[in-house]
Amino acid sequence: MIPLLDRSALTDPCDLVDVGLFDRLVERVARDSCTTTAYAERIIRQTLGFLAACALNPDSGLSPSEEVDKGWHAFLLHTREYAAFCEQVAGRFIHHRPDDPAGEALRPAAERVGATVQAMRAAGLPVDVELWIPDGRCGQCYSGCADDSGSGG
């Protein structure tokens, strides 16, 4: 399916949701992660950029970083808003697929996250590097999640 998101019209991923939803997502991340509102805002901004990249690159298996995944999880908890966002931005539901050691092999997490950052930059989306690079941890050890656009559930 061709994404509904117009790459040339996207200047700020936060424009993809209304201010009230943005604030609720920030509040959820701040509370659940015991972090500051300012840091949670950064996470949600990157989450929206990640989801925009997924919309623009279907079937690419893009993955968020560990920090950005916190924002994705917060958004998923707002099921109606998340489903409507996906339909509006991607024309499809952007499924969340956690790494599963018993499941099919995925590209290494570091490679998927790197591809995501490249896709975001190619789309002109802002990349907050500190939220994408694990702090002193091996990227191969990160057990992340991926956009599973090829699956129905």
What would you say this structure looks like, in words?
There is one protein chain. The protein has one domain (14-147). Helix content is 47%, strand content 4%. It has five helices and two strands. A two-stranded antiparallel ribbon has the order 1-2. It is globular and about 30 Å long. The two termini are 17 Å apart. Mean pLDDT is 83; it is low at 136-144.
Helical proportion, percent range: 40-55%
Low-confidence stretches: 136-144
Total number of strands:
2
- Could you tell me the mean pLDDT? 83
> Which shape, going by the Cα principal axes?
globular
Distance between the termini: 17 Å
Radius of gyration: 14 Å
Query: Class by helix and strand content?
Result: mainly alpha
Q: Give the DSSP E fraction (strand runs of 2 or more residues).
A: under 5%
- Give the strand order, joined by hyphens, for the main sheet: 1-2
Structure annotation, total helices:
5
Main sheet attributes: strand count, strand direction, barrel closure: 2 strands, antiparallel
**Total discrete domains:** 1
Order of helices and strands: HHHHEHE
